[in-house]
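Exercise 7. Predict the joint structure of the components listed below.
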Amino acid sequence: NFNINNDIRSLCRQGHLKEALSILNNNAHYNSIDSSTYVSLLQVCIQNKSNALPYAKLIHAHIHLKGFMFNKSVGNTLVNVYAKCGSLAEAQKVFEKMPYRDVCSWSIMISAYSTHGLPKEALELFHQMRKIGPKPNHFTFASILPVCASLGCLEEGMQIHEEIKGLGFERDQFVGNALVDFYAKCGNLEDACKVFDKMPRRDKVSWTILIRVYFQKGCIREALELFGKMPQRD
RNA sequence: CGUGCAUAGUGG
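Solution:
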């Protein structure tokens, strides 16, 4: 039983979804599959997101049957799988029916709306989270900032920035990049640079964001100059 | 009962 889980997980690690699933379907150890194994199976679906939706549904059925929806990791991963495999409707359904929605669940769903080109819905959900959900964290903020940018919500984004500062999330790489991009997309190049300059670490994404804005504005000189300062440019 | 493993975020 230890081994059946390890076997499935190792097949998952190698990306062999069908082999892993055949164990899940045929085996007498059916009752011994644990929550972490279900998560691994779902992860492989995400890796093969272009054609894994039917497999995700199959795994979902198992999970439902075994009562593993009560496991947070499993539930959250399931929402993510549906979103990533292209079924926003299913993701939504699972999200709404989950026994517990933690900050991770909310963040996944917000990001799902955003990814599917529904920023208004993403922002609405964020507002609902404010009212009835857990406190947003750095993951949530990194997901909501692009939403504010795409909706042109400069004011709200700036308020969120203040909140981020207060919580010390400005140092998070993803949040920092999202902030630079937010200001850049809102046409506030000054604040974009301010955040960029304050960053404790700048990665490829940070540089790309800023260089791109300069190009888009037609400031070729500045763009090239920045590019020249970039540490690891390839 | 204990242990190990397993879930979300930024630009193009």
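Discussion. Residues 53-66 of chain A form the longest helix (14 residues).
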